[in-house]
Amino acid sequence: MILGTAIALMAVLMLVAGFEMLMVLGIPALAVKAGFFDRMPDMILVQRMTGGINQSLLLAIPFFLFAAELMGRGQIAGRLTGLVRALVGHARGGIGYTTIGAAMGFGAVSGSAPATVAAMGHILYPELRRAKFRDRFSLGLIVSSAETALLIPPSITLIVYGWITGTSITALFAAGLSVGLVLGLAFAILTAIEARRSGVAGDPRASLAEIGLALRRAGWALGLPVLILGGIYSGLFTPTEAAVVSVVYAILVEMRVYRSLDLKGLIAIAEKSAVQNAVIFLLLALGTALSYFITLAQIPGLLIAGLEAVRAGPVVFLMIANIAFIIAGMFVDPNSIQLILVPALYPVAASLGIDPVHFGMIVAVNVTLGMVTPPFGLDLFVASSTLQTPVAEIIAGIWPFILVNLLVLMLVTYVPGIATLAPSLLM
C-alpha cells in the first residue's frame, strides 16, 4: 500500500509541477527502486526496460509514423481529400463531411492524429471558411476529425494497448474501425446541424466524369489503405509487416508516381521521424519500468479488493476508469496515459469479466478525447502551429465536439456490442 501510494503521489506531484513526461515516468520508478528495492541489481531494471520494447510488434510504430510523414508532405493527403469532396461535397455543408471523410481516410493510412491535423488542416481550413462555416467551428472540426486516426486502423494507440495487454491487434483494429465510424457519424450529425444553422451550401454536384477523374487521381492513394487493411484481415501479413509495406508503398508513390518528393526531402522526413520515434520508445521503456513496480506494489490487487469491499461492479468501475482517463488526458500525452493507467486498470477490468477488446476501445476513445482536451491536448497545439491560429481560438471551437466525444464514450462504455461485434464476426 505504501509503495503504491508513493508511486502515485510522486507522479501526480511531478505532473502538477510541469515536469516532462520522460521524468514523470522515469523518476518515480528510479526513486521507488532506490527506496524500496535497493538490493535489486540495476541490471534487472535495465533488462525490464530493454526487454519490454524488444518486441517485433512495436516495430509497426516507427514505420507507420514514417509513412504518415511521407504522405503528409506529399500528395496522397490532397488526392484523398479531392475524391471525398467529389463524392459528398454537393450535400449541404459538404465540405464539412469532406473534412471528416478525408481525416478518416488519412487515418487509415497513417494511424497518427497529429499527422492528420498537419496534413489536412492547411488544405481544408480555407475551404471550410470559404463555405461560410464559422471560424471556430471549422477549427474544432479539423482538430476533432483527426481523432478518428487513433481509432481507424492502423492505429498506433491500439498497437500500444495491444502491446501492454497482449490483446490481439487484428481484433482491436476491427473494433477500432467500428468505433471510428460511430465517432465520424456523430461528428457528421453535428456538422449537419451547424450547416443548417449557418446556411452553408454545398458544392455543385460533381458529374460522373468529374468523379471518375477524382477516382483516377486518387487511385494510388486509395491503394494504400486497401493494401494495409486487406493484407491484415486476410492474414497475408501481420500489422508489423503492413507497416513496412506502407512505407515502401508511400515512397514509391510519392517519389516515382506523383514525383512530389526528392531524395533530399526523403532524408529530412526520415530524420524528423527518427527523432519522434526515439522519444516514443524511450517513453515505452520507462513505462515498462513503472509498470513493473506497479505490479510489485500489487496496485491492481488493491483496486480489486477496494471494489469488492464496496460491492462495485463493472458499471461503477468503468465510470471510475473513464473519469481517471479524462482527467489524465487533460495533462498527459496519449502513449503516457496508457503506460500509466492501463497496467493498473486492465487486470481489474479482466477480473470483472470485461472483454479486453471492449476495454481497449474505452481506453482508445478516452485517448482520442485527451488529444483535444484543454489545457494540454496535443492536437490543439499542432493545429495552432499548422494554421497559424492562437490556441485559445481553437479551444473556443472545440467544446461542441468534446460533448459529442463524451456521448460516444458513454455509448461505447455501456453498449459493448459497438466494440465487440466486428471482432467476433471477423475472428
TrEMBL record:
One Gene Ontology MF term: transmembrane transporter activity
TM stretches of this protein: 6-36, 96-125, 137-164, 170-193, 242-258, 279-306, 312-332, 344-369, 398-422
Domain of life: Bacteria
Stretches assigned to coiled coil: none
Subcellular location(s) per record: Cell inner membrane
Membrane topology, as annotated: Multi-pass membrane protein
InterPro entries from the UniProt entry: DctM (IPR010656), TRAP_DctM (IPR004681)
Residues covered by the TRAP C4-dicarboxylate transport system permease DctM subunit domain: 10-418
Keywords per UniProt: Cell inner membrane, Cell membrane, Membrane, Transmembrane, Transmembrane helix, Transport
Gene Ontology CC entries for this record: plasma membrane
Subunit structure: The complex comprises the extracytoplasmic solute receptor protein and the two transmembrane proteins.
Function summary: Part of the tripartite ATP-independent periplasmic (TRAP) transport system.
Family to which the UniProt record says this protein belongs: Belongs to the TRAP transporter large permease family.
NCBIfam families on file: dctM
Protein name as it appears in the record: TRAP transporter large permease protein
